Amino acid sequence: MKESRAAGGNSGGIPDHNALLKSQYTMKFGVIIFPGSNCDHDSFYAVNHAAGQPATFLWHESSDLQGCDAIIVPGGFAYGDYLRTGAIAKFAPIMASVSKFAAGGGLVIGICNGFQILCESGLLPGALLRNSGLKYICKQVNPRVATTDPPLTHPPPQREVLEIHIGHMEGNYFCDPATHDELRKQDRIVFRYSMPEGEITPAANPNGSLDNIAGICNEGRNVLGMMPHPDRSSEAMLGSSDGLKIFQSIVQSLAVAGNR
């Protein structure tokens, strides 16, 4: 993580977030490539061109994270989704390094197939099942920010409704009642499918996901998995630029952490 100029703070020693946002921080993102990944370049473009941050590709057979500050496990069909989504990808050498990185507090975001891989790898609880309608879904949805506590969702305010694209067959999030209760009590449900006005309803749920869950984080609050594709909603020409806020939030979170 590099900083081109100092960010201001207040008299209490707490970082001034507005000053931090104006500072030119540089965060190196690593985007993993698996056989069958098809959104790796989308994520690379969103980070490198839309968010203006350096990025590098990380090959699945490598164990080297190349000094990255944040890791993206992208969407696609890793290893052809054989056996089940993410079941083979979790054994890739790069994922062992990602697990160690996450255990040390490193920021990891899994998008769509990446979310599935993080669940299979044990970095996040639960599983992504077939959509309730048993059809592939490709459309814009409105995930609502359910918490602002995890670092990956700073600074979008709680209850902010985003417009982000989805494209999946297995996006139906499921976990056992005890895990669901834990997610709720620990405020780890990060995004929930909502109506454009923010109302959480069955009609807003595109895939049958438990409790309209669109994204969750781990107990350490540094690993995020989400089915909506912020990489496909990073510029207005794509129909929405709301996804860019997710990538910007990672940079801003690291900037804040670096000034504590």
Please supply descriptive tags for the structure shown above.
disordered N terminus, 23% helix, two-stranded antiparallel sheet, Rossmann fold, alpha/beta, 6 helices, nine-stranded mixed β-sheet, 260 residues
Describe this structure in words.
Helix 3 (93-103) links the parallel strand 5 (70-73) and strand 6. The model is unreliable at 2-23 (pLDDT under 50). The protein starts with a strand and ends with a helix. The chain has one domain: Rossmann fold, CATH 3.40.50. It has helices spanning 17-22, 40-50, 93-103, 113-120, 177-185, 244-258, and strands spanning 2-3, 25-26, 29-33, 55-59, 70-73, 107-111, 127-129, 137-145, 164-168, 172-174, 189-194, 213-217, 223-226. 23% of the residues lie in helices and 22% in strands. Strands 4-3-5-6-13-12-11-8-9 form a nine-stranded mixed sheet, sandwiched between helices. A two-stranded antiparallel ribbon has the order 1-2. The chain has six helices and 13 strands. It has 260 residues and is α/β, with parallel strands linked by helices.
